Amino acid sequence: MQLERALINELDTGLSLNLATVSNRRSDFSLLLALMSQDIRDMAQFELEHSQADAEKLKLRKKFKLPAEETLIADLSTQTLPVDHSATFQAQGVIEFRLQQNLKPEAIVSRGKYPADFTEAINNCDIHVSRKINGIDGDKKLKSVPFITQLEQQRTMSKLIAQA
Predict the structure, then answer these.
(1) Maximum alpha-carbon separation in the chain
(2) How far apart are CA 35 and CA 77, in angstroms?
(3) Which of 142, 118, 138 is nearest to 128 (CA)?
(4) CA angle at 127 for the pair 123 and 128, rounded to the nearest 5°
(5) C-alpha atoms less than 13 angstroms from C-alpha of 24 in its C-beta half-sphere
(6) Is 40 in contact with 121 (CB distance < 8 Å)?
(7) What torsion do the CA atoms of 56, 59, 61, 67 make, to the nearest 10 degrees?
(8) What is the pTM for the complete model shown?
């Protein structure tokens, strides 16, 4: 089985998949799907370029001597104790809460080690890929069995098969 067009990069994969679907070539379609990796980290990465607006924001922040931006997202995988002002709000009221928020800002969102989109992609992956990404090693080392023991086991199995 050979594809009609040569694949140059992953952008050509989409076009080839489309052509295989339209022309009802199941073998080409299954070959292309088999060539694709199940690990989402192997896919092409797209990075947005820093725009002029971002550079201008930094310039204005320095010019007007503004403090650093508040953290909007707290990473619970790295922080042992994230900032939490809820007890202050309940015990001492709104004024004390605002004071604490200005002194030590609390993040709006708390989440794990990966962004929400990446977490959703991991959850949609194969279980082996998600375990690999999360660092859970599923490949357990098999202890090596001596060759003589393997031969004895095979002979025993062949005798059992012959008896059956």
Answers:
(1) 90
(2) 34
(3) 138
(4) 130
(5) 0
(6) yes
(7) 130
(8) 0.34
Question: To which residue do tokens 């725009």 refer?
Answer: 51
**Cα 31 from Cα 52, distance rounded (Å):** 44
Question: Which residues are registered as beta bridge partners of 111?
Answer: 75
Residue 10, C-beta contacts closer than 8 angstroms, at least 6 positions apart: 43, 44
Query: Could you read off the pLDDT of 16-59 as tens digits, one per residue?
Result: 888 888 888 888 888 887 777 776 566 665 455 566 777 888 88
Contacts of 116 (CB under 8 A, 6+ apart): none
HEC sequence for the chain: CCCCCCCCCHHHHHHHHHHHHHCCCHHHHHHHHHHCCCCHHHCCCCCCCCCHHHHHHHHHHHHCCCCCCCCCEEECCCCCCCCCCHHHHHHHCHHHHHHHHHHCCCCCEEECCCCHHHHHHHHHCCHHHHHHHCCCCCCCCCCCCCHHHHHHHHHHHHHHHHHC
The predicted pLDDT at position 154 comes to 92
